[in-house]
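Entry type: protein chain
Record version: 2
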Amino acid sequence: MGGVADAGQPAAATVRRTGPDDAERVAAFLRSVQPDNPKGDVATLRWQYWENPYGEVCSFVAESEDGRILSHCMAYPLVARYRGEPLPIAKGGDGATDADARRQGLGLKVARAAYRCAGEHGRPLTFATPNAESVRPVQRAGVDVIGRLPAYLLPLDAAWLAQRSGLPQGLAGPLGKLVFRPRRERAGEPIDLGDLDPDELDRLWESAVAAEDDRHRIVHDATWWRWRFTRPATDYRIYASRGSDGLTGLLAGVVREAFDAPVLHVVEILTPDVDTGAALVRAAVAERDAGVVAAAGIGLPGTLAAATLQRAGFRRIPERLQPRSVYLGFARNTPDQHDVSGEPWTLSWADFDHL
């Protein structure tokens, strides 16, 4: 989340790597600069930085002479499936600079330090998901930005849809025809993630990869699921579908504010089959809390994720109407790493920090 600061005259500051003992200070800094950043919660920051199963986080701060944090950026470790093989990579984020220290080049320094550190730890790529405000600064830090990530929406409340569309309330009835209607044949039930057999989940992951083997992706196997969806202070709901041969699909969702109202975010869908994925989406939507006005998801063009959302009735949101524009890009952490920005990738909201 957030971006690096614009370049200008260097500030009198020291750049250093942080460790677990700095967690409280880094979380407090992020809270002050980015109130919506979930890593403002120290337990969430520790979970992502130092309690993940993939290695050491590269977290850097620029500090003033009196020890005050002025800027921060990090790259935490993950594993990708790239050209059919595991590839250690990093996810960049939490770029933030104090308002009084901006335009002094500090954001660039800490971002480049984080990317260089990731490369030194055997992670030749950092992928980044900047927002509209930070896309240009991260480009200056060395990120090749591919473009915006398409978002999809399924309205669930006719009155809300009429209001968001700027149309008279009298049209809420006709608009209701565009609103989701649960199907009786939906498949998928809420489950406790801890009840899943890791071997069964790994088999599902492999089958999902095989169905889309032309695309690179972050590894979403059993290790990843059991880490990613135990994030502190987050009320994820997990849905599973089963067939005669075992687990056929998994979905993770969470309700968060968007469009000034509660929206069910489809954070992750893991299945090799579009129909199974769409049925899981319908199950999650049918079980939604009262007051949820819509469901939303993301999917890169041509991916199973995009096809699944469309099969479930979602429609792509025009870019100008998206409440939060998110971009995708990659930084090459080592000189010998080639540019991957033109290659086929697939991502989900679970690969981001804000949900």
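Comment: Confidence is low (pLDDT under 50) at residues 5-10.
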